[in-house]
Specification:
Distance between the termini: 51 Å
Order of helices and strands: HHHHHHEHEEEH
Number of strands: 4
Radius of gyration: 21 Å
CATH architecture of the largest domain: Orthogonal Bundle
Largest sheet: 4 strands, mixed
Number of domains: 2
Number of helices: 8
Helix content: 55-70%
Structural class: alpha+beta
Shape: elongated
CATH topology of the largest domain: Peroxidase, domain 1
């Protein structure tokens, strides 16, 4: 069995347990916000990630650091969950567990995740229009956007929802025109 399969078999039950706790306590949205905050912290701090993943660091030190860092920002039940992960030696899977929790929460809320690549920062109105377009495109009740800026697009956006990609970028349009021109001259 591959490492990724083993990881998935471990991550899934933890994420599902976290969602069950959240639903039982009417905290699904709050835990989603906590997961966002924790993921942001983990992705911006390589030192924290290395510290938590280091097998030579004691559980007590990991718990102490987590309590200091997130006690004021996450719900006490989420903090208890983090302590459980440390106790069980699963804290190194925290990022995967939180991402899986977010996926389960999106599924519960019938929300799709759209990865948007834009040439420039998008205004709130543009983001709202994109969300609406994604909802119409997918039939979902809600849409979440993750936005990445790539000036190489020249203008427009690329929207990816699952395996579906809509390239409405200027670069994509120029590429399509170029392909049409090259096939017309043959």
């Amino acid at each position: 069995m591959s490492t990724s399969n083993v990881t998935a078999e471990i991550v899934g039950p933890y994420a599902e347990a976290l969602l069950a706790i959240a639903q039982d306590n009417d905290l699904a949205e709050r835990f989603g916000e906590d997961a966002d905050a924790l993921l942001s912290l983990l992705t911006t701090s390589d030192e924290l990630t290395q510290f938590l993943n280091n097998p030579l660091v004691s559980s007590a030190a990991k718990k102490g650091a987590l309590k200091e860092l997130v006690r004021e920002t996450v719900h006490p039940l989420m903090l208890n969950f983090l302590m459980l992960l440390v106790d069980r030696g699963r804290i190194l899977l925290l990022t995967d567990i939180l991402r899986q929790y977010q996926a389960l929460l999106r599924e519960l809320k019938q929300t799709v995740l759209a990865e948007v690549t834009a040439a420039v920062d998008l205004s709130e109105a543009q983001q709202a229009a994109l969300r609406q377009q994604v909802i119409e495109m997918t039939g979902a009740h809600q849409a979440e956007l993750t936005i990445e800026i790539n000036p190489d697009l020249l203008g427009g956006v690329i929207i990816k929802v699952g395996s579906q990609v809509v390239d409405a970028s200027l670069r994509g349009q120029l590429r399509r025109i170029g392909m049409q021109l090259s096939s017309a001259t043959v």
